User: Fold this.
Amino acid sequence: MGGASSRNGRGGGADGSGAGYEVVEREEPLLLEGGPEEQNDESMAAGLLYSAGDNSSLRLGGDSSLGPAFGRHGRSGSVQNNGGEGLSDRNGYSGRGGGGGGGGGECCTISGRPLVYLCAACSSLCSILLGYDVGVMSGAKEFIRPDLGLSTVQNEVMVGSLNIVAAFGGLVAGKAADRLGRKPTTALACVVFITGATMMTLSHTFWFLLLGRVVTGVGVGCAMVIAPVYITELAPPDVRGMLVSLTDICINVGIVFGYAASLLCSDVFNSDSAKWRSMIGIGMLPPLLILACLSLMPESPRWLVAAGRNADALHVLKRVMDDEDDAESTLQTISEATTTTEATWKDVLVPSDRTVKAAMVLGIGLGFWQQASGSEAAVYYTPEVLKDKGWANRAILRGNMGVGGFKLLGEVVAFMLLDRIGRRPLFLVSSVLVTLCLLMVGFAFLLNWTSMLTLFWLCMFMFTFSLGLGPVTFVVASEIFPVTIRGKAMSVVIFVNRMMSGVIALSYQSMSEAMTPEGSFFFFAALSAISVAFYYFWVPETRGRTLEEITADLGSSLPPSVPGPRAGPANGGPRHVPLARDDEEVY
Assistant:
């Protein structure tokens, strides 16, 4: 007896009429939990009690992953276990699938590329959390400081503390992402951010405000880790770069949103207290939207394989690929490249594996050099720069909008080019142009150029930064790590990135006073010039390749004595590594 299923809802005679079900032969057995090798239709049939009628219930004894299976194989009605609760597996499938449609806990019936795009868009919203804070605080701090009577040092600590804490929040997210999964970690980030924003909105002292910033920073750190990891593991190679870059686009959408909220609230409310509290309170809307979108998103198939849940991974792959054969071959490829043993922090920080060592050095470098250009200083302290040029408060807020708009424009251009020309060209062009723009901003202060010309070069700096350094950093970083350490490894990259950002945000005002504004921008220009060499010699091209190909080749491209990438297959060197064909869809 090969399996059991209902045929138009009614059984009969010796084949199951007494019990209200009929047993039929199946070409392919249904999959139980544990993977495709564990097939047990006999147990399923034995535990089945099917009451006649289209809306009757199925009752199944035991714990299995039959919720999605019943929906996929045309069972209508509801599925229940013996206790009367909705049948579910560990992936959260409710089993309420009607007639071959959903069968999973995802209430969305979209599949294939549209589902991938939807999931990428929903996950990318996490990045708005950071962007909104950056944008809104550039305006809110002008009202917080007089309202709470903050000193210069307290003002710097308030602005920069979030990035420092986000660095440690990223470490928490890395552990949670590898242990709990990508979706639960996303929910955790949203809840923590909402809690922190609420505390900040209600604060009346510097210390309670700072505590709220700390909690918010943990949420931001979690969000920055999980969004690129989730999208990378779900997206096919031919659009992976474009979709992962959505996370950085959303950072800039958040920045512009924060600028707009600052401008709106400063017009609507009269008191300084009402202005900055409303600005921060509006920031709770994006995480609430993300929580509402989570029900549409499946778990990462690569994380499911790493967790030993191959049957669930196959179900997700079938949904996102719309081809059963491709899904099964992809599952096999992922399984062969994945170990189900959970990586420890020692495996990440002191790796013995050659590939992991190369990936960690590259990832840490990417996180560091992105922020070394001083982009956070330009975003946070554009109001101070314009104030030094004699601009009024309302004009400063409009200037902020201009800087944010050019930053977003650069992201859109990078979004369109990432999967067409590749990662390395964008890195190289962006780093060279950023260096030139930083020099021009420095000369604008040194030679006392007009305020509009200074603002123009600040806008050009933001545009060229977003052309490559901004979005491509996290695209490449999320691609280079093996799946079993990807969560923890990305948290280390975020830690370095946010620490660097926090140090710059904390120290820029004091550095500008000590070195003069032109001196600080010349200093950032020097660091940016050094970064050009890093991007040229160390960063590989990952466009069009599967994640498994990237990680497998990263270590093999090194000479024995060098712990990092060289000019090899992906860097334009002599050894050839084939890329995926334009018409080949692989994961």
The longest strand covers residues 57-60. The chain has two domains: 13-81, 114-298+343-556. The two ends are 36 Å apart (CA to CA).
